[in-house]
Amino acid sequence: MKVLRLNEKLGLMFVSIRVRKNVEEKLEFVDSLQRNFVSFEKDYIEKKVYSYTALYDHLLGMMQVYENEELHDLVNRIRLKPFVTSIKCIDEIICTCEKLCNIIYGSNVEGEEVVVGFDEEVVTLLDQLTSSSIKSLQVISIAGMAGLGKTTLATKLYNHPLVEYFFDIRAWTCVSQVYQVKDLLLNIFSSFIHELTDEIYEMSDTQLGEKLYRLLKDRKYLVVLDDIWDSKAWNDLKMYFPDDKTGSRVLFTSRDIDIGSHVEAARPTHVLRFRNEVESWDLFRRKIFRTGICPFSLEALGRVIARKCEGLPLAIVIMSGLLKNNMSNEWWRQIAEQAKLFMVSNPSQYMDSLALSYNDLPPHLKPCFLFFGSFPEDYEVSVRKLIYLWIAQGFIHQSGSKILEYVAMDFLMALINRGLLMTSKTKADGRIKACRIHDLLRDFCLRKSLEENFSLLSYKYPLVSVAASSLYCVVTRDSGNIRVKRNKTSVDTPPRLTHSGLCYPYELSDIIKEGRPIHYESYKTVRVLDMENVPMSVFRSDVVHLSELRYLAIQAFNGSPPASISNLVNLQTLIILSKRNIVLPKTIWNMVSLRHLCIRSGENHIEEPKLVQVGDNDGSPNLLPNLQTLSQVSPQSCQDMSSRAPNLRKLGFCGSLISRLGDLEFPNVSSLQNLQKLKLLNTVPYPEATRSCNPVLFPENLRKLTLSNTGMDWEEMWTFSLLPNLEILKLKFHACTGELWETGDAEFPQLKVLKMHYLDIKYWVSSRDNFPRLQRLVVHRCSKLDSIPLDVGRILTLEVIVVRGCSTSAHNSAIEIQKEQENEGNSFLKVHAKPELEIQKE
């Protein structure tokens, strides 16, 4: 039987009900619909048709896996409630379907961007990209105004299976109006080289270009230059793209329709059109409803709103963000009456339409949204950093028992759900890692900020060398062991980042770099000093006079702060990058406002306080009651963390973590009941396989554990299965040693993500029962691993398997797992595999 998607099936059924005139026929149809709906939902979940007998058993299993009472109630509601034939009951079925999908998938749905109305363009461009008749290097361009879907179309082409098969190398970089050649080259490299080395970061523009030329030589490649504004960027880069008559292509996206003639493209520019009314409606309903079906009671209003978007996808996305969380007729009618969306090429003519979305924001979200005008175009903003900055600026306030960081995350998700922000990177567990704002919306932020006298930070690129940094510890192999050491590059190298990095305030970069004194009166109200991309020799002691600082990020050859750091009584976030191990003065324990203490490298020490004050009836405060993040610190500095920082949520130990008897050893953190993430990086290798510690040393709520260089015997891994809430386990850099990992009867009941990096494992014996809720498996650079256990592919919840840089047999086993699942009708599981030989060629 041919398997159709849920929205296709329901779409056909809802169309057919309209043409039925007989009441009895309608009643029979609706009754059939409510009886079969769950079958369609199951089909949507696993793209697989089941018999009704198997369906009931599977639904019970799904409810047990997700343990969601609302899911249970909704399923029974669909199965058991006798529906009557009416538009209202059909709408109820549609809305119930939406709720069911949202419960099951939550925010972890992986799906490509909706592409509507580009079918002909896709066929044409695919032919041009993969044509075997033209061997010479071809430049192909896609142009149109902002918001028409240029990047969306380019992404669809870039990820198309035919393109993946046709080209040996694919690379993507975003250009924008302001760019640096080095950043463009680094982004191209990062597209097909999984981990860039320090050597690459230290190269000059010319050296990088020459290396790129050699790597592309005699290879069939596709490079996408997204959002190119003029021909200058192409002129800066084209010398590094060889034309060896292999059928290579360069694809541009641009707002400039004449870009093709500027870069001497062999073919006319593909100018994107606005969507027609049918396409606009199709995109509109697919952006709002997971099933792609709009309730009958809202359809007429929805069509009016979609028509007023004048065929611009960006406008449709914004409107969908306004509507998707409010299904009342009154709200949709209000939007339909007020929306004056006439999107044309002049930005001043669509500001009013964007203002509609902005004006609908609650007051607490408006400054968070406008804040995105602080960053350059197309800049990917780290979610962690964004939240720290929002809090520093005073945009986030306490909400009930929620901590500020969780409130800020809710704000971010609200902006994303309204279509005002875009997710650009996700973490291993599917959570958002970085986000960005569309150029049109960024322009709106700048205009609205001027109108409302809203002060932006205006992040800019610092005027410093763009060489690479070695501030991070370098991990090397020595006689089979992992050693952590310092890289001894020059002082004037900024941090190791794909982008050269930004700084704020911009004018301070020269003052700090040159060692000139800071005029405090000019910056006495500054809350943010972000200089982690401006290298200096020592931690500038004069910054402690900026008494209003909430956020301070410093990069220094010697990053040890002075004792006077405690003068910054309002400081919430302190980030230090240093080439040397740093010593934090005992006065750090007096900084009661501190929330995040992030040290980016090395084995660092915190001096003992003179007195440990523990909260009691006399009202004495804890030393650091608000501290949530503490990273890269020596375990010897943290012997009594439960009394010094009782509310820690993220903790990273770096130092000697193995006892003389070969046991994993670190300070007891079991009393840190809020601790969710723990990193253990051992720096002193032990000559034999080590043993685990007693699980009671870990807090009960721990959900993420990372082990590095601990050299643990695989037989000891069962102890971590006793952590009841562990969701993410990362085994990196000689974390475990030995050829065989046999999971036996151990069960990791809550584990969702398992990552294995740079391990010497050869055989892995495991079953689906060991990881009943696993969603993502990542195996990277485990070159001796023979295969991925076949039974792992049968885990009901598994979504992704990534195998990179492993043996050919491990690569083939991952492909075999995917084939087996596809043969069983499960196309839900995605496998991304690249063998070691292909990685070595990169």
Please give a structural write-up:
By secondary structure, the protein is α/β, with parallel strands linked by helices. Among the domains are: 1-106, no CATH class; 119-271, Rossmann fold (3-Layer(aba) Sandwich); 275-360, Helicase, Ruva Protein, domain 3 (Orthogonal Bundle), CATH 1.10.8; 362-451, Arc Repressor Mutant, subunit A (Orthogonal Bundle). It contains 26 helices and 29 strands. The strands form seven sheets. Strands 11-12-13-15-17-18-19-20-22-25-27-28-29 form a 13-stranded parallel sheet. A five-stranded parallel sheet has the order 2-3-4-1-5. It has a three-stranded antiparallel sheet with strand order 6-8-7. Helix 14 (277-288) runs parallel beside helix 16 (313-323). The two termini are 43 Å apart.
- By helix and strand content, what is the structural category? alpha/beta
Q: What's the total count of β strands?
A: 29
CATH topology tier name of the domain at 119-271: Rossmann fold
Strand order of the largest sheet: 11-12-13-15-17-18-19-20-22-25-27-28-29
Describe the structure concisely for a colleague.
The chain contains 26 helices and 29 strands. The protein is α/β, with parallel strands linked by helices and 842 residues long.
